[in-house]
Design a protein that fits this description.
The protein is α+β, with helices and mostly antiparallel strands. 22% of the residues lie in helices and 37% in strands. The protein has two helices and five strands. The strands form two sheets. A three-stranded antiparallel beta sheet has the order 2-1-5, covered by helices on one side. A hairpin with a 2-residue loop joins β3 and β4.
Length: 86
């Protein structure tokens, strides 16, 4: 899927906050995230919230299958926030 990355919060950029957020995503049989929870925090609430928001509101998944039938399943998704030097 061509899912967008999260918006890097402006305040987090200014504070040089970086980290990896791991999200536990429960995906329904239609490929939509039904429930999204933080499996492991980045240590920064703004980064965690940006990751939650983009996955809940903008991401779609290829659903798991049992035989030929799409089924609900869960997956852990890591999202990295890293500031690049320019």
């Amino acid at each position: 899927m061509n899912n967008p990355g999260p918006q890097y919060p402006y305040v987090s950029r200014r504070k040089h906050e970086q980290g990896v957020v791991k999200l536990h995503v429960f995906v329904n049989a239609n490929g939509r995230p039904e429930r999204v929870e933080i499996a492991r925090s980045s240590g920064f609430p703004l980064l965690d919230q940006a990751a939650l928001d983009v996955v809940k509101n903008r991401w779609r998944f290829v659903p798991a299958k049992r035989g030929d039938q799409a089924v609900s399943a869960s997956v852990v998704v890591p999202l990295e926030f890293e500031l690049k030097d320019r």
